[in-house]
Amino acid sequence: MANATTLDVLDATGQKTGSVDLPADLFDASTNVPLIHQVVVAQLAAARQGTHKTKGRGEVSGSGVKPFKQKGTGRARQGSVRMPQHRGGGIVHGPVPRDYAQRTPKKMIAAALLGALSDRVRAGRLHVVDSLVVGDAPSTKVVNELLLRIASSKNVLVVLERDDELSFKSVRNISTIHVLPADQLNAYDVLVSDDIIFTRAAFDSFVAAKATKQDDTAVASTPENTEEVTA
User: Fold this and answer.
1) Residue 2 has pLDDT above 70, yes or no
2) Cα–Cα distances in Å, from 38 out to 47, 105, 108?
3) What are the start and end residues of every segment in region (Disordered) (predicted)?
């Protein structure tokens, strides 16, 4: 890993209990705004259901006979009351079910996340806590008191381990908190949150996972693992 700075680790009462290293390649990455915009737009597009549907001329209910005779009325000829110009007729060029997903390379997604996290670090809005509660019982009150000390902003993202039921039960009823497991952290949720709070276990898990991916990428790109293709 590259050079790292440190960040204080707090307990459930907001007191310092230690520190963690912030690897520069993860938390001091450049913030590429156009890249982040592209990734976020793709993520929001993929979340669309795409189930919208209008009925065309052949799908609406109605008679198939001519509304009046072809000639002699002085009016424009009409073939059916289901035509688009009639009330209750079909819709022309209306939306149909479709998939809005965009292809986004994994490296772009990863770079957008690290750029967003680094921006929060530089603004002093990333926090690490040993635990969100004291003891073995969930407590929303303790979490609220902790938020008043370290992150009193309107929107807070809390990153937990998947099996941390105690912390999850403590924060699930707080409307200003959005909870994510460490392996689901993404650029969009980071950007819409004013402060980010990691538990120590979730932070270590996130850093370890990123380090593993970087090591795998480095191994895959070494010359001995690259086959020469000849025509």
Assistant:
1) no
2) 14, 11, 9
3) 49-97
